[in-house]
Amino acid sequence: MAITIADVASRAGVSTATVSRVLAGVGSARPDTRQRVLESARELGYRPSGVARSLKLRTTRTLGLIITDIGNPFFPELVSAVEEAARERDYGVLLCNSGEDPEREGAYLELLAERRVDGVVIASSGVGRRHRTWLAKAPLPVVLVNCASPGVPLPTILSDNRAGAALAIGHLIALGHRRIAHITAPSRNEAAAERLEGARDALRAAGLDSAALLVAEGDGHVGGGAAAAERLLETDPHLTAIFAYNDLTAIGAIRAIRGCGLRVPDDVSVVGFDDVDLAAFADPPLTTVAQATASMGRWAVAQLLDRLRGGPPTTETVMLPVHLEIRSSTAAPPAREAAVS
């Protein structure tokens, strides 16, 4: 039989109202009374009703987090940062994996509102565009991470995708590469267009023809990266470098390059984007553009909690810089190609 607040009150010799106040941390009970109540609750194994407590205090001390794809190693790092930042402030996190499915995204937004979470972090590409109407009338505080919602003023934190792509292409150009290709992602991935434009920026800055950049679309995953790299190598067998939309795509590209009997980086250099933990352990270790993923997660939680503490609504957009992690997947192009260029 479940232990009730009345059982605790009887054991401690106080009223149920006193027990409620002590366990909620409100009021001014005498120290000896507070100690008796806490000891009685512990000895009886009493667990306060989270639902009742949240209704009384008007807070569930829970945050929602919607992500695109838990199978992408970029997201576990973000989830860990959000969870740790929330835990430090005595909040829990309810995780929702949208799987890039618009219907699931909408269902999760409604679910989190119904569960009365105190705020939501959205790190799911495209949610800001597909569910703009819901976000414009959101019944709870919302912060966006690595995605945007045009026309809806919400606190947002982004990586400088365009500058990051320019860093990647600039690195390849500096090594001597001229026959460079890019594996992009479907248009629903908001960063895809920015990274493609950043790649073209770097080519133009170097006095090269940006229109000559070979582009193939992947799916943001290993398989799609491999298939796109195969198509690129069929189009230009003398390609010497590939810049991939993300690290998973880059790993797929490496697989395809080897499948064509070529070596990385001796024949073809590969650069990724994200710097997930797996990138440093790829074979060869992957040169990649590193995002400040953990910083984005911590910033998002801080924004939500500031709002929940009564801070004024903010529509601030923060753009975090990125940097290039140079590892072993990039090198100068083969001598014959360098001579031609």
Which key terms come to mind for this protein?
six-stranded mixed beta sheet, 12 strands, 14 helices, 46% helix, Rossmann fold, alpha/beta, 341 residues, six-stranded parallel beta sheet, 434 Repressor (Amino-terminal Domain)
How would you portray this structure in words?
Helix content is 46%, strand content 16%. The chain has 341 residues and is of the alpha/beta class. It has three domains: 5-57, lambda repressor-like DNA-binding domains (434 Repressor (Amino-terminal Domain), Orthogonal Bundle); 62-159 and 293-319, Rossmann fold (3-Layer(aba) Sandwich); 161-291 and 325-340, Response regulator (Rossmann fold, 3-Layer(aba) Sandwich). The strands form two sheets. It has a six-stranded parallel beta sheet, sandwiched between helices. α5 packs parallel to α13.
